[in-house]
Amino acid sequence: MSTAILDSPAPAESDAVQSFTITLIIRRFIPEIDTEPRWEDFDVEVYPTDRILDALHKIKWEQDGSLTFRRSCAHGICGSDAMRINGRNRLACKTLIKDLDIEKPIYVEAIKGLPLEKDLVVDMDPFFASFREVQPFLVSKTKAEPGKERIQSVADRARFDDTTKCILCAACTSSCPVFWTDGQYFGPAAIVNAHRFIFDSRDDNAAVRLDILNDKEGVWRCRTTFNCTDACPRGIQVTQAIAEVKQAIMRGKP
Predict the structure, then answer these.
(1) Matching NCBIfam families, A to Z (predicted)?
(2) Strand 106-109 vs strand 121-122: parallel, antiparallel, or unpaired?
């Protein structure tokens, strides 16, 4: 007995996903020719499921090779393509065209509060300097047994689970109004990474980190605007983590 193999009917033309044209207005800055940033618009053909990163690639590859931006993994892991999209900090690789209002131009610019180098690229050195200053690494006075892990309970691990998700994209820090006006403020990302070790039961350096953050440019500069929480592409409760560090300082211990 033979079995007939039927071809699936081709989708109707009206059912096919249609491309369309959007306008990206990008804040450009080329230091060799510009004294101030300027806005430049580009029309790009995209699909609804394309990302802003895809649109930027099309511009760079097909229209203007001088357009400069950072990107690496393109999957929301490396955090290198953080930028302001329609006035909000987002990752270009996670922002879908269909989630934006395509009836209006889409504005794209570099994140704020860090020195602008070119187009959408900023100098990340001040950001990483604050990160390093909070000592974001495990410090233990107890020597681990050779070949064995440092044991920790599920409950103890859960205590700081949220802040382990940080990918150092700077979206939270560069969304903070205090950081925009005060270049000395540690910023949310540094505090989040301090939190990750302050509340780690295996770490013995919490008091040192709390002392570092108990400073006029530390946690007390936070004004609880929640911009950082809203901007985090990993969904970290950044403002809550900052509040927990404040409470630990007042208690004198985690």
Answers:
(1) dhsB, PRK05950.1
(2) unpaired
Q: Is the dihedral of CA 59, 61, 63, 64 positive or negative?
A: positive
Reply yes or no on whether the pLDDT at 5 is more than 60. Answer: no
Tell me the whole-structure pTM to 2 decimals: 0.89
Name which of 137, 132, 66, 94 is nearest 231 in CA terms: 94
- Please say whether the beta carbons of 71 and 93 come within 8 A: yes
CATH code of 18-122, in short, is: 3.10.20.30
Instruction: Please state, in angstroms and rounded to a whole number, the distance separating the CA atoms of residues 44 and 58.
Output: 7
pLDDT band at 147 (very low <50, low <70, confident <90, very high): confident
* Local structure of residue 137 (DSSP, 8 states): S
Give the fold, CATH level 3, of 125-138+153-251.
Answer: Fumarate Reductase Iron-sulfur Protein; Chain B, domain 2 (1.10.1060)
- What pLDDT was estimated at residue 14? 53
User: 3: Cβ–Cβ under 8 A, 6 or more apart, which residues?
Assistant: none
Residue that the structure tokens 């959007």 belong to: 22
Phi and psi torsions of 131, nearest 5°? -60, -45
Read off the DSSP letter of residue 63: I
